[in-house]
Amino acid sequence: MTNKFAWIMSPDIKWEEKKELITTGLEFGIDHVLDLKDMKNIEKIGNIKVISEDENADIFLVGIKGEGDGTLHLDSDVDLTNSNDLEVAKNFKNKGKKVVAYVEINSKKHEELARILGKVVDYLILVGKNWTVIPLENIIADLQKEEVKIIASVNSPDEAKIAIETLETGTDGVIFRPNSFKQIKDMSKIIEDASHEEYDLKEATITNIKPVGTGDRVCIDTTSMLSPGEGMLIGSYSKSMFLVHSESLESEYVASRPFRVNAGPVQAYVMVPGNKTKYLSELETGDEVLAVDKDGDSRTVIVGRVKIEKRPLILIEAAYEDIKIKSLLQNAETIRLVNNTDEAVSVSDLKVGDKLKVFIDQWARHFGMSIEKPIIEK
């Protein structure tokens, strides 16, 4: 599952009222606004991407036109053989511009136009007037192999939930015209919940534990507070990883650091959003990684800093069915893995025969992405 997102379509209200709604959206992580009237003012609020028919906008808009008061209307004529929107979209794409098309689905002809535009533009906003979910299903199915991000225009959190769950994969995002701070908060919660990736954690049995000398160890400090039971999926193999617990628990040696995961050596992998991996050495401030809990539920957190130091390492080997799993961790009492009873167990207390929670991917990885190709890791 990829991360879902929400955009705001500016309501036709006074600027000061609009500003408060857009600011609230930004506070809840909604940083794209479709607006035909106040682009310059919106840009002053913060780092916000503006979608507009203005060619200087961050994302150029085709398919609707602005009236003098900033409201929108759809061009009524649809000529699939000679679509002006299609030509404009192609021209701006050739200039290196991000383009979004806005299509109101009123007929099969509009569905076909959406499919054609979806093969050209970066984003496709679909607006339904008294429609069922069927046209949305058809368009998602037809464009699933294209790079376009499909966005459904919705009026409520319930409609948003339906849109992002349609055909299991759902739309990539939703766009809505906010009418209250509560609506923005509720929409944000729907998107956050839908963006969670779930990992089917298995129980692997430890087969070997041994010190292996020193190496460059990576600590990941996040901008979020991690709870007991949460950590990150870390491993020397990209297709098999241990759940390494956060430093959210108290120790007799050091105070808890609930924002930190003492992850492992620089060559190890960490799971990041989109079911992808990165080397620990690649992580930088501002990157996204996944915090995963004992049940396999995940959430995206931001890297605040990465700290690399030479530390003594310990090798943990385990087996799940006929799959071997290996990882190196710092050899210290404060480093913990999660066992089969959901307890965080220090590496200094582990022994052969103990069972640990692990994630096994059926496919290997190439440049961090899962691929259906045999790759041997040992």
TrEMBL record:
It comes from the Archaea. It catalyses: 2-amino-2,3,7-trideoxy-D-lyxo-hept-6-ulosonate + NAD(+) + H2O = 3-dehydroquinate + NH4(+) + NADH + H(+). GO terms for molecular function: 3-dehydroquinate synthase activity; dehydroquinate synthase activity; NAD binding. The keyword Oxidoreductase applies. Keywords: Amino-acid biosynthesis, Aromatic amino acid biosynthesis, NAD, Oxidoreductase. Signal peptide: none annotated. InterPro entries: DHQS, DHQS/DOIS_N, DHQS_C. Catalyzes the oxidative deamination and cyclization of 2-amino-3,7-dideoxy-D-threo-hept-6-ulosonic acid (ADH) to yield 3-dehydroquinate (DHQ), which is fed into the canonical shikimic pathway of aromatic amino acid biosynthesis. Belongs to the archaeal-type DHQ synthase family. This is 3-dehydroquinate synthase. It comes from Candidatus Methanobinarius endosymbioticus. The lineage of its organism: Archaea, Methanobacteriati, Methanobacteriota, Methanomada group, Methanobacteria.
